Amino acid sequence: MAPTAALVEASGLVKEFRRPRKAPGLAGALRHLVTRRFDVHRAVDGIDLRVDEGESVAYVGPNGAGKSTTVKLLTGILVPTAGEVRVAGVVPHRDRVANARNVGVVFGQRTQLWWDLPVQDTFELLRDMYRIPAADYRRSMDRLCEVLEIGSLLPVLARKLSLGQRMRADLAAALLHEPRIVYLDEPTIGLDVSVKDRVRAFLRQLVADGTTVLLTTHDVGDIEEVCRRIVVVDEGRIRHDGPVDVLRDTLAGHSTVRFQLAAPAPLELIRQHLPDAEVSAGAGERDLVVRFDRTLRPAGAVAAAVMGLVEVRDLRIDDEGVADLIRRLHDRDSPAALTGAG
Amino acid sequence: MRPYRAMARIAWRNALAYRVPFLMSLSMLVFNLVAMFALWQALLGDGNSLAGFTWPQMKAYLLVSFFTNCLVSTFTDFAMASRIRSGAVAVDLVKPVDYQKGRFAEALGFALLETAAAATVCAVVLVAFGGVPLPPPGRLALFVASLAAVVPLKFLIVYMCGLICFWTQNYLGISLARVAVSGILSGATVPLAFFPAWLRHVAEALPFQAVTNTPAMLFLGRSPGLPGALAVAVQLLWVVALWWLARRLWHVAVRRLTVHGG
User: Fold this and answer.
1) What Pfam families does the entry give (chain B) (predicted)?
2) Interatomic CA distance for residues A95 and B69, integer angstroms
3) Pick from A38, A62, B59, B237: most CB atoms within 10 A?
4) DSSP result, A98-142
């Protein structure tokens, strides 16, 4: 097992953004000049997080949940409105330079490569920026070139790289100085399946070698293949925090039956007959989704109960995985979004 | 030093990658120089002098002014502003280098190219329009020192304007305002000697005049009341003061940073 020294410690972390409130049109713009009004938006709303050395954490949640903002607070890019952060004993936004030596960051949607220069130049700049000794640099480069297969990309201008090549080069750039913790903000976004597999295999190796990894993602594959712990965040708060395999086991006890009915679904009626199941409407008005604990009643009993009440045209039974958790999380209207997570 | 040397070096190489926009903006300054030469030659060409300037002296003034206009111009501010606006500044903030020193190192890298280009243009103009009176060696050395001091000084003015982007998210207006204000108050548009007394006093109390007026006056040997060495000392004092002020401004500005999305 990994040693258990806290590498990241955040408590009561809050970040508020002020957004100007402007009425539309010229009149609105003029009025804003005189009476400036702002909406305060709490992107991160009291987050407590502790990550130990050697952990691999997936930080997930719907768009706008505060994932990226949290990463930017942990890396010291943003200054928190309230609360405290320490990463390897350093307050990141107060001592950016010391923090930068301990961490590596990959933003899936941004690059840190110098756009108009060969990839090699960026690596050499980073070598000097991090004051990496020549021998360490060579060893680090050799390893990264081998596992990420970027050797042939070194003389290429960064802007000529494909997205997959760019991501591999960016990963190498973030890891060149052998940071203790790596933050990956959607590292597989937009990549095709084979490149995704390569990136994930690389990240798994990184974790196995003892580097602490915190990644935000929408991709279930990233979570299941790379991370041992999952933290689910929504509306700036942590909603769930636990091992990925426990979550999978909890969810494995649940099934979902999707019905297609002959007529619009009488939701209330069905709820009365299946009180311990979660009954909701599907995409169309004749769709019906029933989610239930398989240990309490078998799928057949659920199907029979529904068929006794309404005319069923078609039905499909799904076992759940982490994917369903994410999917239901993204559907914020569902009040029971996390019942399966315990 | 090693990180900053590397940043200056890569900025220089990056500037070479952008040589076309660089040459375009340089040519704008050259056109301006040619126009000013034509204007002042018409006024002073037949042996007149205005506010104590003869034609050879005015030629020297215009060349020094052109030189200081070229230094720390095109790259620093727009590069910085666009990174703040696009959120790419996030990447700069996770590097083990001080932000201000890092930008200064880059400005130095660019300044190398700018100096080379400006010196070439000056040489060509000198050949085309005839010589200008050279100052004696001692003053020439002071002039070169004062020209060198222009680089950090102008960088700090440009850098602080760039930081305003954290508030406005728009840079074009700020940049145009900066060019207009510093163009007038530095003496780059018209020598301070032509200003009404009150405006001259205002200009002399501000850092802008140390960008163009100070080196030009040193070159011409016309630093009124101030021995040359003192003029350079005043420049350096401005550098120290503005460096400190820029740091304060940065600490306020960075708290306002919002970077949305990945």
Assistant:
1) ABC2_membrane_6
2) 36
3) B59
4) HHHHHEEEEETT---S-TTSBHHHHHHHHHHHTT--HHHHHHHHH
Q: Are A223 and A60 in contact (CB under 8 A)?
A: yes
**Would you say B26 and B70 are in contact if contact means Cβ atoms under 8 Å apart?**
yes
Integer Cα distance of B118 and A249 in angstroms: 70
Residue B242 neighbours by CB under 8 Å, 6+ apart: B153, B156, B157, B160, B207
Count Cβ atoms below 10 Å from residue A82 Cβ, excluding itself: 11
- β A6-20/A38-52 pair status: antiparallel
- The residues pairing with A105 across neighbouring beta strands, listed in sequence order, are A183
What would you report as the CA-atom Rg of chain B, rounded to the nearest whole angstrom? 19
Residues of B near A (CB-CB distance < 8 A)?
2-3, 5-7, 10, 13-14, 17-18, 87-88, 90-91, 93-99, 254-255, 257-262
Residue B198, both tokens:
């009150």
Q: What digits encode the pLDDT tens for the residues B217-245?
A: 999 987 655 678 888 999 999 999 999 99
Q: How far apart are CA A177 and CA A140, in angstroms?
A: 8
Reported as half-sphere exposure (CB side, CA atoms, 13 A), residue A121 has a value of: 20
DSSP state of B53: B
Nearest to A107 among B99, B255, B262 (CB): B262
Read off the pLDDT of each residue in A180-201 and give the average, rounded to a whole number: 88
Burial of A56-72, coded b for 16+ CB within 10 Å and e otherwise, reads: bbbbbbbebbbbbbbbb
- Judge contact between B167 and B256, C-beta under 8 A: yes
Rounded average pLDDT over B106-120: 91
A77 vs B2, B7, B94: nearest CB: B94
> What is the ipTM for the molecules in this complex?
0.86
Domain ranges of chain B: 2-254
* 3 state DSSP class of B168: helix
What is the Cα–Cα distance from B64 to B57, expressed in whole angstroms? 11
Q: Domains in chain A, start-ordered, CATH in brackets? A: 6-248 (3.40.50.300), 254-319 (3.30.70.100)
Contacts of A86 (CB under 8 A, 6+ apart): A8, A9, A10
pLDDT in tens, A62-105: 888 888 899 999 999 999 999 999 999 999 999 999 999 999 99
Residue B89 CA to residue A69 CA, distance in Å, equals 15
What does chain A come to in residues? 342
Minimal CA–CA distance to B61: which of B200, B254, B222?
A: B222
How far, in Å, are A5, A172, B188 from residue A206 at the CA level? 18, 12, 57
